[in-house]
């Protein structure tokens, strides 16, 4: 699997699609007006890129499928990681201007790209605040808000940065310091300024698309009808009741039929009480409904959060702990903001103290990681995707993208300990996808189809 070339993987993906379409290579060749030997070459990965491309193009024309699904991502990582050096980041520098109090367009932000890959769900930026203010007042006319954006934003602060945000027309502000963090839900207007004309004031902003971003193409196709997916949040059981109504429609179950199923499950709840009304559903009710609808209890649960749409975390030395264990002290971790709303979005700072380069005490995570050296000292990075061990030095302002399950360990390069900002988010494989995948009998044919379905 490890050594498969890009064309072999694309060939396997074409075979998987042909299986879904219930075509063998002869049927595929006939439908695409190609020679069966050509199809076999493409599936085995021995055809040219042009021929492979031609097969994908014809499949997209002949069958009602999404041909972009067959165009796999060429791996742009180096054994599972991708580094962007400080110099490369600096070369992407661009200045954004926004109006000041006099209506003049003056420099507001300097943006720089940092490490990301085709595979990574995030587009992290280094953003320096160029607008200097002398207060923390969101009504200050030098503060210019944006309109909010589609991506979630996880932000770490370095230096004296003011953070402003708007919820339902009301504006808020907070003074932030190095190591503080915040999380913004999509489409919430926000902005940042500096409180100092001399000190470095910047944010490390990890913007990323969650599951909704991944569903974007389908949502664009559905347009206004996508609104029917929104769950009711008006009461404690409102979300669950929306889901029950949806399951009834999806399976063409009538209220009378649900009543009969509920009685069979031993419930006292009525179907009308399950789909409407103000009465909250008890845990027992939800169990009965799950039984009656043939779903699991988890499928009917809708979490209610007290979090605001923008949340802020001020860092404190009291939160610090040694990692990976108190008895194996390689670095000091300080958690950044966590919200139950986004269980697959985690961040922390790491103060690297160990001289030990051993990978065994390093990080391994199911999430995609973005790491930025925001301090003044270099650190040694060792990593392995399972095929061997690699090393490099990560200098200040270098950044790194790490694929899931690539083990990576940091240690002191020379001199003082380094300070890293680490933000991790899920890609396509989390939550429901992970649960579904875990019921498959084997992973090998999921990641690379190798045979006809019969
Ligand atoms: Fe933003």
Automatic annotation (TrEMBL):
Question: Matching Gene3D superfamilies, A to Z?
Answer: Jelly Rolls (2.60.120.10)
Entry protein name: XRE family transcriptional regulator
> Which species is the source of this protein?
Amycolatopsis acididurans
């Amino acid at each position: 699997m490890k050594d498969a070339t890009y064309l072999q993987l694309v060939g396997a993906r074409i075979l998987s699609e042909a299986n879904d379409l219930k075509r063998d290579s002869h049927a595929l060749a006939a439908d695409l007006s190609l020679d069966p030997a050509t199809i076999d070459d493409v599936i085995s990965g021995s055809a040219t890129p042009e021929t492979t491309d031609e097969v994908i193009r014809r499949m997209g024309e002949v069958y009602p499928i999404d041909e972009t699904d067959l165009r796999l991502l060429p791996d742009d990582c180096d054994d599972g990681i991708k580094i962007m050096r400080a110099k490369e980041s600096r070369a992407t520098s661009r200045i954004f201007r926004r109006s000041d109090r006099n209506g003049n367009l003056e420099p507001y932000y300097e943006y720089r790209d940092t490490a990301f890959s085709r595979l990574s769900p995030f587009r992290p930026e280094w953003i320096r605040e160029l607008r200097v203010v002398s207060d923390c007042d969101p009504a200050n006319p030098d503060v210019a808000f944006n309109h909010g954006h589609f991506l979630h934003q996880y932000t770490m602060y370095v230096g004296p940065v003011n953070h402003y945000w708007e919820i339902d027309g009301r504006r808020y502000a907070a003074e932030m310091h190095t190591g503080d963090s915040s999380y913004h839900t999509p489409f919430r207007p926000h902005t940042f300024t500096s409180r100092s004309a001399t000190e470095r004031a910047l944010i490390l902003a990890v913007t990323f698309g969650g599951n909704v971003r991944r569903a974007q193409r389908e949502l664009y196709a559905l347009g206004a009808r996508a609104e029917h997916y929104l769950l009711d949040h008006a009461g404690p059981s409102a979300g669950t009741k929306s889901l029950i109504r949806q399951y009834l429609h999806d399976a063409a179950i009538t209220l009378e039929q649900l009543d009969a199923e509920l009685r069979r499950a031993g419930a006292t709840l009525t179907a009308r009480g399950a789909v409407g009304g103000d009465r909250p559903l008890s845990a027992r009710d939800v169990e009965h409904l799950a039984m009656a609808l043939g779903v699991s209890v988890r499928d009917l649960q809708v979490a209610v959060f007290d979090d605001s749409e923008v949340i802020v975390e001020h860092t404190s030395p009291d939160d610090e702990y040694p990692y990976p264990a108190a008895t194996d002290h390689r670095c000091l971790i300080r958690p950044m903001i966590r919200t139950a709303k986004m269980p697959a979005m985690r961040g922390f700072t790491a103060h690297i103290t160990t001289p030990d380069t051993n990978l065994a005490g390093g990080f391994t995570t199911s999430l995609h990681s973005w790491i930025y050296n925001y301090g003044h000292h270099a650190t040694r990075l060792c990593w392995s995707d399972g095929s061997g061990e690699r090393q490099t030095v990560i200098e200040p302002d270098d950044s790194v993208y790490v694929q899931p399950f690539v083990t990576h360990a940091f240690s002191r390069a020379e001199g003082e300990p380094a300070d890293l900002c680490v933000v991790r988010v899920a890609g396509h494989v989390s939550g429901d996808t992970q649960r579904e995948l875990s019921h498959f009998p084997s992973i090998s044919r999921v990641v690379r189809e190798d045979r006809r379905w019969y």
